[in-house]
Amino acid sequence: MPEAKTVKRRTKSEDPAKADQASSNASERPRLRDAERTSKAILAAATKEFAERGYGGARVDAIAERAKINKRMLYHYFGGKDALYVAVLEGSYIAIRSAEARLDLSHRAPADGMRELVVFTWQYFLDHPEFLGILSTENMHKARFLKRSARIFELHSPLVSEIAGLLDRGAAAGDFRPDCDPVKIYMSIAALGSFFLTNRWTLSTIFRRNLSDKGEIDAWGEHIVDVIFAYLRP
């Protein structure tokens, strides 16, 4: 009598198609992480290069060297210098707008929220001098590259809405004067900070004061707060 054959049932985990898919997913994750790291490294290197040398002076070779990649990979990820520069502009604005969103201004008391926004903006400019460098470069080009961005307008709408909310609630409570323009308020905050930082070396020489001294920097931050609140006071 022939020996009976034992048929082994295949479990779900042994399904070849699913096993192959799981293996593919597992191998895909490291590749995605590597791609993300490479993209971030290129953007960080490009931000420094453009901030230091401007658009005209920046070189793709130098950016690739800073990012420790070959130039061909840079073109693979961003296509070229123009597209990379637009990505740097978008990334710079995304970074500051994302940080501002964490202030949660819509749930703050008007005066506290406005002071927090002023202090945050001043400190952000201090911590991120490359941001002011990028803005200076793009203003020299009259926002020619920024206009190519499809994302830039939607990035700023929430900030304007939150400042408008602070101003409306402050006016209703009698803390702020009515009918203040949220865009003008933000422009005033940014202008008072950026002018000091981008001109402090010439101003230090002209007025014989070391405006890079910590005491001078701290005092100017409080001065910005005082100026903004002096205007807002009813």
Notes on the protein architecture:
The chain is mainly α. The chain folds into 2 domains: about 15-80, Arc Repressor Mutant, subunit A; about 90-234, Tetracycline Repressor, domain 2 (Orthogonal Bundle), CATH 1.10.357. It contains 9 helices and no strands. The protein has helices at about 15-55, 60-65, 70-80, 80-100, 110-125, 130-140, 150-170, 180-205, 215-230.
Features:
Tetracycline Repressor, domain 2; disordered N terminus; Arc Repressor Mutant, subunit A; mainly alpha; single chain; globular; 2 domains; 234 residues; 9 helices
In short:
With 234 residues, the protein is mostly helical. The chain has helices at 16-57, 60-67, 71-78, 81-101, 110-127, 129-140, 152-172, 182-207, 214-232. It has two domains: 16-79, Orthogonal Bundle (Arc Repressor Mutant, subunit A), CATH 1.10.10; 88-234, Tetracycline Repressor, domain 2 (Orthogonal Bundle).
